[in-house]
Request: fold
Amino acid sequence: MKPLKRLWAKLTGKPDPDDPRQIFEATLADFREKYRKSRDLVAGVLRQRDQVRAALDQKRAELEGVQTQARQAVQSGDDATALRFLEREPMLERTVADLGRRYEMLEREAARAREVLLELDAEVDRLERDRDRAAYLDQTADAHASLRSMVRDLESGTASPAVDRARSSLEHSALTQSIAHDLDEADRRDSSSTAPTSAQERLKALKGRLEK
Reply:
């Protein structure tokens, strides 16, 4: 019966169920694939962080430009032009604040993601060392029992505490996307709202600062 099982395993490309080494190799290969997908997701978090940082830098530059132009208009005695710039200031301030919060959140998540990647790499290295050591074991019942135990640990996740941390990080990534969506909605509401009536007060405050 066992020769038939081995032949079937060879024909289908599946590991021989009676060969713990093949089972371990197949399980380790699956483990590596899960790690690769985790790294891809983490890379997505880093890309999102960089995109938010670029948007934040752009909006900060726009805000500084509006403030500079409003100040120059006041100094030239052109209050009407200054008011037009000051009407844009509150919306830009809210956008900068929202992007700043989003960036800080993604920066914290990116730092955690880097820690997870280091743990994942270390775990894969450890498992590969276990595999290499097992390759030198004699074909004994003890060797088979040891390999089967390693397979059970791999399949249950007990061999890798990093797996739970990676899963938690990825769940947090999904939460990040949800929060980012809420912030996008807030940005759209801000951009579609009418200019606040505090432009006159801002103009008065700006004149007061310039007179000092």
Notes: Residues 79-135 form the longest helix (57 residues). DSSP finds six helices and no strands in the chain. The mean pLDDT is 72. The helical segments are 2-12, 20-75, 79-135, 141-156, 161-192, 199-211.
